[in-house]
Amino acid sequence: MKNTPEHNERIRTMKFFSVYPHYVTKVEKKGRTKEELHTVIEWLTGFDSTKIQEMIDRKVTFEEFFDEAELNPNAELIKGVICGYRIEEIDNELTKKCRYLDKLIDELARGRKMEKVLRGS
Question: Gene3D superfamilies recorded for this chain (predicted)?
């Protein structure tokens, strides 16, 4: 699947607070916790639970969310397909970062060990 400019724009302007509850529901439905979700988000972005809540309260877009993030240097180890897109082939940096997050959350929800989700960290 090829990312289109329209797709990239939609991701850029999507609000983090509107997607976050879906992340929580996804992981909790599969027996994981909100705390584990926050561990994954913190690993990728450097945001602790307080900062995640601040981002939700400010109703930031994904562009603003990742502009403020300090991406984990091991994020490039996140590979595979998510939402029909092969992460390694995504050329738009913001879209790639969003797919990194999606992939980590998907792995968490599927029951993968936290050590594997966090790429051995």
Answer: uncharacterized protein sp1917 domain
